[in-house]
Design brief:
Blueprint lengths: L1 E6 L10 H12 L3 E6 H7 L20 H10 L1 H11 L6 E5 L5 H14 L4 E5 L7 H9 L4 E3 L6 H10 L10 E5 L2 E4 L30 E4 L2 E3 L9 H4 L3 E3 L2 H14 L5 E4 L8 H13 L8 E6 L7 H9 L2 E9 L3 H6 L6 H13 L3 E6 L8 H14 L5 E4 L11 H4 L25 H17 L12 H11 L1
Parallel strand pairs: 1-2, 1-3, 3-4, 4-5, 8-11, 11-12, 12-13, 13-14, 14-15
Antiparallel strand pairs: 5-6, 6-7, 9-10
C-alpha cells in the first residue's frame, strides 16, 4: 500500500509541516508505505527574486487570490510538472493533501495536475478548512478530489487507504465525505482521539530538518486545542476542548528524536500553550533535569499563556530544565480589551510573570495586536504603558504585522455585528467599524507608534520571518 502526502503553499518554512509528519507516523505505524513531499518548502527554496516575500505571512493575501496563484503556477508549470513526476515516481495509488485557506488554490492546481497525469489515482484532502461545509462543496466543484477527511486524520486516513486497496466499502470508514453522482455522501462522524499518548511519534524521514530556515531545532506538538476560547482565534472552532500528552510521553519522544537527530540544538514546542497544566509542566521539567537525553541538557522553548499559577519557583524550575524562552500572547495592555476578547488573565499577572522570568534568567518574547474592534485610544495608550513599564524585562516583542486580522472561523468572524464591524467585509485585513473610526490605516499607524515606543525604550522588535517590513506595509496599504 503506497501513499504520497503533499503540502502546497503557502505554509511556514521554519520547520517541516507537522500535519504531514504526524500522518506519516500514523500510517507507518500500521504498515503503510508513505512518502511526504513538502512542495511549499521546495518552491520557497527555489523562488526567484521576484517572489522573495511571497512566503511571508504578511503577504498571505496573494495566496487567497485564484487568478494570482494560477498565474504564478502557470509561469513555473514545467517545474511543477517535474515535481508531480517526483510525487508519482513510486507509483502511489493514493495522494493526500493537507489544506487550510492559504493553500487552497495551490492545492487545487497541483491536485488537478496529478489527475491529468493519472486519472486512476485517488486523491484526498484534509485539514481545518473543512470545518466549514461550504468548503467541501467548493472543493468538489473546483477539483477532482475523491475523498475529503473531516476532523482528525490519524485513524481515518489509514482506514481509507486499506479500504481503497482492498476494494472495500468506503461507507465503513468514519469521518469522510465523497461524491456519488451529484450527491455528497457523509459517513459517520469520527470521534476525536481521547488519549494523545497513544499517537505514534512524528516522522521527519522525508523532510530533513536541515532543509528548513531554522535547522537547529526539532518541532514537536504535545497538545491539541486550547484551554481558552479567545474571540479572535479560530482554534476552538475545529479543536473543541483541550487534550495533552503526559510529561513522560513527551520526554520519551524527545529521547527518540535525539537518537535520530543528535545535532538538533533545541526543541521548539508548537503547542498554543505549553503551560496550561502547570503540574504537567513541572513534571516535564523535573524529568529533563533528572534524565537529560544522552546525558546532556536539552534546550527548549514554547508558547505560553499568562497562567497565574506560574510562580517564581516554577519559572526557576523551567529555566533549570533548559528552557531558552517562553512566548506570551499578551496582545493588549488594556484589561478592558482583554476581557472583551476572552483573554482570561489579569494585566498585573502578566507584568509579575514577565518580571519574575527576568529575575530567574528566563527570556521572554511577547506578542501584541493592534486595533481590536472597540479598542479606544485610551486602551491603546495602556498597551504602550505596558511596554514602557516591563520592556526592560522582555527579550523581544513581536508586533503583529496583520495588526488585527479577521481570522476565518473565529467567533468575531462569525459575529461581526456584535463588534460594530461593517459588513460585508471581503478581506481579512481591510475590515472597518461601522463608525469608520477603526480602519486598516488606523491599525497600521498604531503598530508604527508601538514600534517607535519600543525603539525609544530600547526594546527589541522582531521584524518577522525573511521579509521586509517596510515593503510589506507599502504593499498592503497600496492594495487596500
Amino acid at each position: 500500500m503506497k501513499v504520497s502526502l503533499v503540502k502546497c503553499p503557502v505554509w511556514g518554512t521554519r520547520e517541516p509541516p507537522l500535519a504531514l509528519a504526524q500522518l506519516s507516523g500514523d500510517l507507518k505505524a500500521v504498515g503503510i508505505d508513505v512518502k511526504c513531499f513538502d512542495l511549499n518548502n521546495y518552491l520557497y527554496k527555489h523562488r526567484n527574486t521576484n517572489f522573495t516575500n511571497l512566503w511571508a505571512w504578511e503577504q498571505v493575501s496573494f495566496w487567497n487570490q485564484k487568478e494570482k496563484v494560477f498565474e504564478f503556477f502557470d509561469s513555473i508549470k514545467s517545474k511543477l510538472e517535474d515535481y508531480v513526476d517526483y510525487i508519482l515516481e513510486k507509483d502511489p495509488k493514493i495522494v493526500g493533501f493537507s489544506l487550510e485557506s492559504s493553500s487552497y488554490y495551490s492545492t487545487i492546481y497541483v491536485s488537478n495536475l496529478i489527475k491529468k497525469r493519472n486519472k486512476d489515482i485517488k486523491i484526498f484532502f484534509g485539514g481545518q478548512l473543512y470545518y466549514d461545509k461550504r468548503n467541501i462543496e467548493r472543493s468538489f466543484n473546483d477539483s477532482q478530489v475523491d475523498y475529503i477527511n473531516l476532523g482528525e486524520g490519524d485513524i481515518t486516513v489509514a482506514e481509507l487507504v486499506r479500504i481503497i486497496y482492498q476494494n472495500g466499502d468506503i461507507n465503513k470508514c468514519d469521518g469522510l465525505c465523497y461524491k456519488d453522482g451529484d450527491k455528497t455522501i457523509y459517513t459517520k462522524p469520527r470521534e476525536m482521539l481521547k488519549n494523545l499518548d497513544n499517537l505514534p511519534y512524528l516522522d521527519f524521514t522525508d523532510m530533513s530538518l536541515d532543509d528548513y530556515d531554522d535547522n537547529e531545532h526539532l518541532p514537536l506538538q504535545t497538545s491539541r486545542g486550547c484551554v481558552w476560547a479567545c474571540k479572535f482565534c479560530s482554534t476552538h472552532s475545529f479543536w473543541p476542548g483541550y487534550r495533552q500528552m503526559c510529561a513522560e510521553r513527551i520526554h520519551q519522544e524527545i529521547c527518540y528524536h535525539k537518537i535520530k537527530y543528535p545535532l538538533a540544538g533545541h526543541i521548539d514546542f508548537q503547542d498554543l500553550e505549553f503551560n496550561a497544566d502547570v503540574n504537567r509542566l513541572k513534571e516535564f521539567c523535573e524529568l529533563l533535569i533528572k534524565y537529560p537525553p544522552f546525558g546532556s541538557k536539552q534546550y527548549w522553548l514554547s508558547n505560553a499563556i499568562v497562567n497565574p499559577l506560574m510562580t517564581k519557583d516554577i519559572l526557576a524550575l523551567v529555566k533549570a530544565s533548559g528552557c531558552k524562552k517562553l512566548i506570551f500572547g499578551i496582545e493588549s495592555g488594556s484589561q478592558r480589551v482583554l476581557d472583551m476578547f476572552g483573554k482570561k488573565y489579569k494585566v498585573q499577572d502578566a507584568k509579575r510573570i514577565i518580571k519574575d522570568a527576568y529575575d530567574v534568567g528566563l527570556k521572554v518574547t511577547t506578542n501584541f495586536m493592534f486595533g481590536f474592534p472597540g479598542e479606544t485610544e485610551e486602551d491603546f495608550e495602556e498597551t504602550l504603558d505596558f511596554v514602557k513599564e516591563v520592556g526592560k524585562y522582555i527579550e523581544r516583542v513581536y508586533p503583529s504585522r496583520t495588526y488585527f486580522a479577521m481570522e476565518e472561523f473565529s467567533y468575531i468572524y462569525d459575529h461581526p455585528d456584535e463588534f460594530n464591524i461593517k459588513t460585508p467585509f471581503n478581506h481579512h485585513l481591510y475590515w472597518k467599524t461601522k463608525d469608520g473610526k477603526n480602519t486598516f490605516p488606523v491599525r497600521l499607524k498604531r503598530c508604527q507608534r508601538f514600534e517607535q515606543v519600543c525603539k525609544d525604550y530600547s526594546v527589541n522588535v522582531d521584524c518577522g520571518v525573511k521579509t521586509n517590513v517596510l515593503m510589506d506595509e507599502y504593499f498592503n496599504l497600496g492594495f487596500y
